[in-house]
Design goal:
The complex is a heterodimer of chains A (235) and B (82). Chain A has 235 residues and is α/β, with parallel strands linked by helices. Chain A is built from five helices and eleven strands. Chain A is globular and about 45 Å long. Classes of the chains: A alpha/beta (235), B alpha+beta (82).
């Protein structure tokens, strides 16, 4: 099993994602440069966090036109599991692989902290090993993580159960107090209608070992291994 | 030929930066400011082979749709200048 981690100029969590997949989860990982046009034999793809192309124009706006994105779009279209973390989520939004957009955090400030995140759906390749309603302690680090979608789009993703992760307070409730950036409906992560493409602002790859303050991110990455194994077993 | 593209957040999208600027103006004593919306503009220099303003407008509109603005959150306005 091989997970491809795409490297854009300005990615800064590519090495973290590579390490978490290869050393902590223990499956194959390869780094793929954004100018490449093929993903090779990858079984899953991660678009990592960072500031691709300096976040110039809008976050993810330039990266979505990187040559590798053609292959990522085709892979996603075939049902391949794709995870966008933080800046990777922003790239998926700009590419239209996920609905909605990110705007500046409500409080203007760049937010860097550990936050409780509730798993809303477990039928995606990146939440399959979680239990529904499980609250994960995950780090966030972003200036533009304020999720926005038009009211009709928001209603649609809620009714299609596309909200996979939600920011919650210390009691596990999706309250304004538990919302670090102003995201509509406390949205921390969503999937597409086909459920194989997932984006989230928190960084599971930075929370895979207790020495880093939390190992709750491990279950997110382990999910794709479980999900691919289940898919292979089904044939 | 030149073109200018103005890009602003759609009215339905909260603009945190504009809000902070409005608060700053209020704290400076400009109490007549009720709201500020922040935006940006792009000045495009077009090659001299583009001499038809209508064709240039269509082309720049395409650029705005594809890259300069994100239609999910932003609206844009194109001006073609001689």
């Amino acid at each position: 099993m091989t997970v491809a981690v795409v490297v854009f100029p300005g990615s800064n969590s590519d090495a973290d994602a590579y390490y978490a997949v290869s050393h902590v989860i223990g499956v194959g990982a390869v780094l793929v440069w954004h100018k490449d046009t093929e993903l090779g034999a990858a079984d899953a793809v991660i678009l990592p966090g960072g500031f691709a192309h300096g976040d110039y124009l809008r976050t993810g706006a330039i990266a979505r036109f990187s040559p590798i994105m053609g292959a990522v779009t085709r892979f996603a279209g075939r049902g391949g599991p794709v995870l966008g973390i933080c800046n990777g989520f922003q790239v998926l939004l700009e590419a239209g692989l996920l609905p909605g957009a990110m705007v500046r955090n409500r409080g203007i400030k760049f937010v860097s902290s550990m936050v409780p995140v509730r798993v809303e759906q477990t039928d995606t390749p990146f939440s399959a090993a979680c239990t529904g309603g499980q609250v994960l302690s995950l780090p966030i680090a972003h200036g533009e993580g304020n999720y926005f979608a038009d009211p009709d789009v928001l209603a649609e993703i809620e009714s299609n159960r596309q909200v996979v992760f939600r920011y919650v307070d210390g009691h596990g409730e999706a309250t304004p107090e538990g919302n670090p950036n102003g995201s509509l409906n406390n949205i921390a992560g969503i999937c597409n209608r086909q459920r194989n493409v997932v984006g989230l602002m928190p960084h599971p790859e930075r929370a895979c070992e207790s020495s880093l303050g939390s190992h709750d991110g491990r279950v997110v990455l382990a999910s794709v291994v479980q999900s691919l194994a289940a898919g292979a077993a089904r044939g | 030929m030149r073109a200018r593209v103005y890009v602003t957040l759609k009215p339905s999208v909260f603009d945190p930066q504009g809000r902070v600027v409005a608060d700053a103006l209020l704290s400076l004593g400009y109490e007549d400011v009720s709201d500020v919306r922040q935006g940006k503009f792009f000045d495009l220099e077009l090659s001299d082979t583009d001499t038809d303003p209508a064709a240039a407008r269509a082309r720049v509109t395409e650029m705005a749709e594809k890259l300069l603005a994100n239609p999910v959150i932003e609206s844009y306005r194109v001006e073609v200048l001689p």
